[in-house]
Amino acid sequence: MRQIYHVLLVFILTFTISTGFVNGQKDSTKLNQSVEVMKAYHPSITNANKVNMLPVIDDTTHLLPEFVYSIDSHPINSGFSASPIKPADVNKRYYEESQIGYLKLGAGTSNSVFGEFFLNLPESKSATFGLHLRHLSSDGQIKLLEGNKVDAPFSQNNAAIFGSVNIGSTILSTDLSYDRDAIRYYGYPASIPAKIDSLSSNKYGMKQAYEKGDFKVALRSNEQLHGALNFNTGIRLGFFDSKTGQKETSGGVFGKFDYNFGPVRGIIDASFDHLSTDSIALALDPLQVGSKKADWIRIAPSVRLDGDNWFLRGGINFVTVSDKIGGNQTKLYPDFEFNFRPVEGILTLYAGFKGDLKNNRYGDIAMENYWADPRHNIRPTDYNYIISGGLKGKMSREISYNIGVKYSQIKDLYFYTSNSYYNAGTAPSNYYSNQFGVIYDNASVTNFSAEFSYVSGKDLSVVLKGNYYNYKLDLLQFASHRPNFDGSVSAGLRIIDNLTGFADVGVIGMRKAMVYNINPFSSPVSRDEVFQLDPSIQLNVGATYELMNKFRLFGRVDNLLNRPNEQWIGYASQGLRLIAGVSVSF
Known about the structure:
Blueprint: H1 2-19, H2 31-34, H3 92-95, E1 101-108, E2 112-120, E3 127-138, E4 141-143, E5 149-151, E6 154-167, E7 170-184, E8 207-221, E9 229-242, E10 247-260, E11 264-281, E12 289-306, E13 310-323, E14 329-343, E15 347-358, H4 362-368, E16 381-394, E17 399-423, E18 429-432, E19 437-456, E20 460-473, E21 485-496, E22 499-508, E23 511-517, E24 529-533, E25 536-548, E26 551-558, E27 566-568, E28 571-572, E29 577-585
Parallel strand pairs: 17-23
Antiparallel strand pairs: 1-2, 1-29, 2-3, 3-6, 4-5, 6-7, 7-8, 8-9, 9-10, 10-11, 11-12, 12-13, 13-14, 14-15, 15-16, 16-17, 17-18, 17-19, 19-20, 20-21, 21-22, 22-25, 23-24, 25-26, 26-29, 27-28
């Protein structure tokens, strides 16, 4: 089956390039305006629906794309995918004439190799087309916190084709993407035992690779025609495959319809998805490996009222799940949002009252924690309700802000944990597993967020972000692997006429990690352990020099402080890394 997917993917890619009509969703066709400057573009999983609150330690050497990302103001999302860093105007002048694409090549320490190709044909009246290819790999060693040096190679490969074609008053768009991430189980929370290969509970040294592909075809109305009915509907297909044998296939249809009745707008957002996952631990028996199938239906009707400086939308979110293994569920949630602009452009007040049943898809979980138990089968998370509010706007022409608060009541919020195994021989000790399982609890989570941006023409731009989290759990003593705060500061600066630079620093607060002892013999003494993960601090700096028209040299240093940051217990990140190369735009 895996070979069939590869052949099909190559065929579709070849056919798309030759015809020039295959393209992506609306936002993707404007990547020359929205690609983040300080991090590399990552195609995302369709309908990932991420509402998690766990930030990511950026462990790989992301590089500077050639295009511009504008400042926007919206509630901060600190999910597992790193939030975009957007001080892009500094580089805008160099790329105003580069409307088609670029080729970038680089190499660096730890045997790092980087290559990226981007093509975005100018938008015409009839069609658009784009192509993105990217490779990043490293074959270096990492020093763990206990002093052991281990091999920690990784590679990332991404490919995406996207575009659209106008058909009368509608737009037909297509989006095809493929990603492959390969890693190794290299971490260990203590000194690595001499005979670690003999421990059946450990995956040390095991190679893992994740592949995912997504294909979407959508038909939407042309919003420029300002018709009474706006719609966006289509089909999506996806697959996920792991080196350890787990597979997931998905397929579904979606549609959003917005009709203007005059005084009000009627909106219906609906979707159907079928998922099939093989070779995972079934919920009824954790030791039994099998497959499960699930059907998800979402229907969210609402009505929107608009005033001169406000809007109110109210409705319901109906979700039903048919799953013989995990159990059937039917949920009904509120879906309200309110927006009021007392001072146009200066102050906007917003609020929301929503709920959702999150489908924790196998592929999404595997990509957010590479070293999770390959057989994991995480059940859905029920966001009973989410109350949010805040204010955003501009303090001046250069300074914008967004300050918000969110309170969530959650059932079955999952936390990553690991296990240890006690050896009561002549030298009693604990042996640790270096893969992660999950534990569930009901939670009340409060999240305060703030974002400030400063943009001074084309020469300086600064973005500050921060989050504070407060977890109240029913059973667990703490939220394993989750911090109480995280923040980032990013800046771009034009140093001289042909030289621009950037610096960004990210901080993740101290965390605790739970390790449960699995002892085959009953004992009155608990050997469960709590590990403390030090705060993660990562400082990256870099520069780009325009040597001649459309030909540039770039260089950067990641993790300048050479800190062994851990996101998951035992898995320290790479130390100081340097990378340099050339780019050519056209």
